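REQUEST ID: PR-0412
SUBMITTED BY: lab tech R.K.
PRIORITY: routine
TASK: structure prediction, single protein chain
INPUT:
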Amino acid sequence: MSPERAVERYLKERKPEVSESTYRNHKYALSRFVEWADENELDDVSDLDGFHVHDFKIHRRETGGISEMTLKNNMCTLRVFVRWLESMDVVDAGLAERMIIPSPDDDTRDTKIEPDTAEAILGYLEKFEYGTLRHALFALLWDTGFRLGTVRALDLGDYHPDEQYVTVRHRPDEATPLKNGANAEREVNLHGWVCEVLDDYIQMHRKPTTDDYDRVPLLTTRYGRPAGTNLRQNINALTRPCHYSGDCPHQRDEAACEAADEYQKSQRCPSSVPPHAIRRSAITAWLNDGHSKELLSDRMNVSTKTLEKHYDARTESEKRELRKEAFDMK
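STATUS: complete
OUTPUT:
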């Protein structure tokens, strides 16, 4: 069986079992593996061995233009696929367990923005892109710490401007599932300044359109509900320092920098961050403001254990200063 055919069968089996985002991530990572297998004449997936796995990892690291964390995620996906091949008696048992997965030191914690950076971005949006889709998107992400899929899933009727909150609902049959399913449904309060941005966005820039299920999205493009890639690209572009401040901390020539010159390559700026980094940064900012992990767990839809491991990016000094303030140790 060819690697391409094996991946097709694997994805077909997994699709009903995993979330849409997980399926999409697996499809993307395994597509890179299929491309590599084709280029390296791995025609029969049953020939797959440890050397192939190693060569693919080196190929992704050296030519993929990805971070070590992304490489780790890619290789973890490949390992799940290899385990499936083992269960089908296609490859030798034990191959998956022998795979060496990268262990980046940052453990997902280093990709974030500081509160003063967020304030600088909001200041830029307030002055130059007020009430736009990008302004509404960043304001929601920074205030709520939502996952990108959660923001995308919001309908106009889910926003309650008078009471200043949004209702988060799981609608898997209408292409807006939540990562944690029905357990992620909740009502989330918004700060007044966010509601002002949303109100003005709705009045000035929101496109009056529906999606493929005749629902009325809160955030829209001329084509309806924006795709996740559209929203992600907006955040990648917005968080480039040259965009919101006019300065480049990397001493690059903006005219020769593809991240600055080409919108589709904005994520190649070393300072550009993805939407999930906004989530991590927002949670850290709320923690630094002294809010309890238990309350944030409900607001952000993340267990306290996961919050501590993946989202609490505070330094030990920041934690100590917060304890000092809480204990009134002046």
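NOTES: The mean pLDDT is 88.
REVIEWED BY: pending
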